[in-house]
Write a structure and sequence with these properties.
The structure holds 2 protein chains of 2 kinds. By secondary structure, chain A is mainly beta. Chain A has strands at about 5, 10-15, 20, 25, 30-40, 45-50, 55-60, 60-65, 75, 85-95, 95-100, 105-110. In chain A, a hairpin with a 2-residue loop joins strand 7 (about 55-60) and strand 8 (about 60-65). Chain B has strands at about 5, 10-15, 20-25, 30-40, 40-50, 55, 65-70, 75-80, 85-95, 105, 110. The N and C termini of chain B lie far apart (about 30 Å). Chain B is built from no helices and 11 strands. Classes of the chains: A mainly beta, B mainly beta. The interface of A and B includes residues 32, 36, 45 and 89 of A.
Amino acid sequence: GDSVTQMEGPVTLSEEAFLTINCTYTATGYPSLFWYVQYPGEGLQLLLKATKADDKGSNKGFEATYRKETTSFHLEKGSVQVSDSAVYFCALLNFGNEKLTFGTGTRLTIIP
Amino acid sequence: DSGVTQTPKHLITATGQRVTLRCSPRSGDLSVYWYQQSLDQGLQFLIQYYNGEERAKGNILERFSAQQFPDLHSELNLSSLELGDSALYFCASSVETGVSGYTFGSGTRLTVV
């Protein structure tokens, strides 16, 4: 079945550092890929998405590129801020299977 | 505000009891999804409804049931509660198949004591 493997956390970075959170997936066909973010005490918010190979999703300075050859969708940001502290979830949605499959989440803490 | 409304925000109840969680989807969304988030199991898909009909089922226990009403709001019923049912329960909605992603509510935190 479909699965998503995320970089283990927690991750702690200093403000303005470069961020990478790794995500790889296993799925048949051509799934859509997503990054969701969960701030403390809140629900999940869609951060960015990509629906086909080589697509790049971007939002709020975050980027991720759908790499079919490596089955990856790594999340990157060039300069993180304290306000980026949250839990980040990678997820996939496969055509014909309407539920989102989530990774385990990566807790990110940014220190000033 | 995401547009998906979940009530109540917090619920504390005793083992063996029954509770109902409510979700109102975003205006225009026909699909409703229920997820359970616990520390040890992460985000687990429970069930999906589309326009009143059950569409997909995940790791939902027999003690749990759900329905979607004609006005598209949904309720998740949890019965014979156990300590291990303590978790955050999220509802999400999408227009149809969710290919553009879901919109999540802020969740109901259930504590079973």
